[in-house]
């Protein structure tokens, strides 16, 4: 937001939160269990005091998990989160409790995040009670002040959440988050569940409160346009990884990472026939239990680097190969977990249960030169023989490039703290523009 930008441009650029190599894995509990879900998979971030830092990405990319891990609502698997110089991932007991006042969260869904058996007054007061702040009387007074500060009235104290509209409920959630005078607030899709007209009012409220109380925000959203309006800087997340980070306007005007480009070009235009406002990219993200070995985005990337030796292969053929590889990957994932097995049984997994049919469909009218055909034939045989893993490995060896094999580095782009996670920034591969295909 402009005022905030000015404020910290003029004065300090001090880092409030420093995240280093943060990982949060779920279900990492034994040699014989399926591989863990890598919800946050090695994240580095700096959040500056007083700024609004945006975090965007498709559903399931790990945004909420990252936000919750920064607040110690989840225990990090590894890595550090320094808050004002203190690593909070190892705090315990009274130190942890004291620190918790500093860092609060507002949830997406004001419907389910407020306890419907408590009055609004009790809900907002609860953190004050839990931390023994002031006398009875002072707490009541503080709650009344907070209610009016977020645009509610004193008589709302005795009402119940279900008597309120979505926007009002979110005001209650905000008042509660501010009760203990935190420095840092995670806003986890705070307006995603609200009508557009209400969204604007809540955003304005959040901006005013930030100004008044010197708050630092982590603003999580899947709606890229909301973020553009409110955030000073933005990080784009995919499969547990930050793909690109930079100042908001710069990143929106001139995205350098293929994932950011894809996401921005998929911003939904108002379309009366489209019920969902979801941002959709071609293909689906791989399971975070089985992320690609190289770049996380490699299975969907429109700028993926081709290996040497296939320069003569047409775009159509190459596209079909990549899609065939995705299908084979899905086949190997089937063994991974119960959820996947259920999905498969329900027919949600892949429409290509018959591998011959898949090949026929994908390569219909598409050239299959000999350099390609031998590998395809082998892979199909292996899948049929019940060895999809062998097929996957052969395809990886034959058609894999640096994008399939190596994790990219975070490359500095320009001189304003922009970073992008992509092999294309290496000198030998740096012409992303010409490579965007789909
Ligand atoms: P986002 O907020 O970007 O939609 P989440 O952080 O909610 O993403 O989820 C990231 C990944 O972690 C998803 O694959 C999700 O299914 C998984 N996940 C989230 N919470 C849990 C949990 N408590 N147990 C197991 N997996 C989880
Ligand atoms: Mg979420």
UniProtKB/TrEMBL annotation:
Residues 17-264 form the ABC transporter domain. Gene3D superfamilies: P-loop containing nucleotide triphosphate hydrolases. Keywords: ATP-binding, Nucleotide-binding, Transport. GO terms for biological process: peptide transport; transmembrane transport. Pfam families: ABC_tran, oligo_HPY. GO terms for molecular function: ATP binding; ATP hydrolysis activity. Residues 263-301 are annotated as: Disordered. SUPFAM superfamilies: P-loop containing nucleoside triphosphate hydrolases. Belongs to the ABC transporter superfamily. NCBIfam families: oligo_HPY. This is Peptide/nickel transport system ATP-binding protein. It comes from Halolamina salifodinae.
């Amino acid at each position: 937001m402009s005022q905030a930008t000015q404020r910290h441009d003029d004065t300090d650029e001090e880092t409030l939160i420093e995240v280093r190599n943060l990982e949060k894995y779920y279900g990492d509990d034994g040699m014989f269990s399926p591989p863990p879900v890598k919800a946050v998979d090695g994240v580095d971030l700096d959040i500056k005091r007083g700024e609004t830092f945006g975090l965007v990405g498709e559903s399931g990319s790990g945004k909420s998990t990252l936000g919750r891990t920064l607040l110690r609502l989840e225990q990090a698997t590894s890595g550090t989160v320094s808050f004002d110089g203190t690593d909070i991932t190892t705090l315990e007991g009274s130190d942890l409790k004291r620190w918790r006042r500093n860092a609060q969260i507002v949830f997406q869904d004001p419907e389910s995040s407020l306890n419907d058996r408590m009055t609004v007054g009790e809900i907002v007061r609860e953190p004050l009670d839990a931390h023994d702040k002031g006398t009875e009387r002072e707490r009541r007074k503080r709650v009344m002040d907070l209610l009016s500060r977020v645009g509610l009235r004193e008589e709302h104290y005795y009402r119940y959440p279900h008597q309120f509209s979505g926007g009002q409920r979110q005001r209650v959630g905000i008042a509660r988050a501010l009760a203990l005078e935190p420095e840092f607030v995670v806003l986890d899709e705070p307006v995603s569940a609200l009508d557009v007209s209400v969204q604007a009012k809540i955003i304005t409220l959040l901006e005013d409160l930030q100004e008044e109380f010197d708050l630092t925000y982590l603003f999580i959203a899947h709606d890229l346009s909301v973020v553009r309006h409110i955030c000073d800087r933005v990080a784009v997340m995919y499969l547990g990884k930050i793909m690109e980070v930079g100042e908001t306007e710069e990143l929106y005007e001139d995205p350098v990472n293929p994932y950011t480009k894809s996401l921005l070009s998929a911003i939904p235009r108002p379309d009366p026939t489209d019920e969902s406002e979801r941002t959709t990219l071609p293909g689906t993200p791989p399971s975070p239990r089985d992320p690609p070995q190289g770049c996380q985005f490699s299975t969907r990337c429109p700028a993926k680097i081709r290996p040497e030796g296939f320069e003569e292969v047409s775009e159509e053929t190459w596209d079909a190969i990549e899609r065939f590889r995705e299908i084979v990957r899905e086949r190997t994932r089937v063994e991974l977990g119960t959820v996947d097995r259920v999905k498969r049984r329900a027919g949600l997994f892949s429409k290509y249960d018959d591998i011959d049919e898949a090949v026929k469909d994908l390569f219909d009218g598409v050239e299959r030169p000999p350099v390609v055909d031998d590998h395809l034939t082998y892979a199909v045989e292996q899948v049929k023989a019940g060895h999809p893993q062998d097929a996957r490995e052969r395809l990886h060896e034959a058609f894999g490039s640096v994008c399939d094999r190596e994790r990219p580095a975070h490359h500095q782009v320009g001189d304003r703290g922009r970073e992008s996670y992509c092999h294309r920034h290496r000198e030998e591969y740096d012409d992303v523009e010409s490579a965007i295909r789909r």
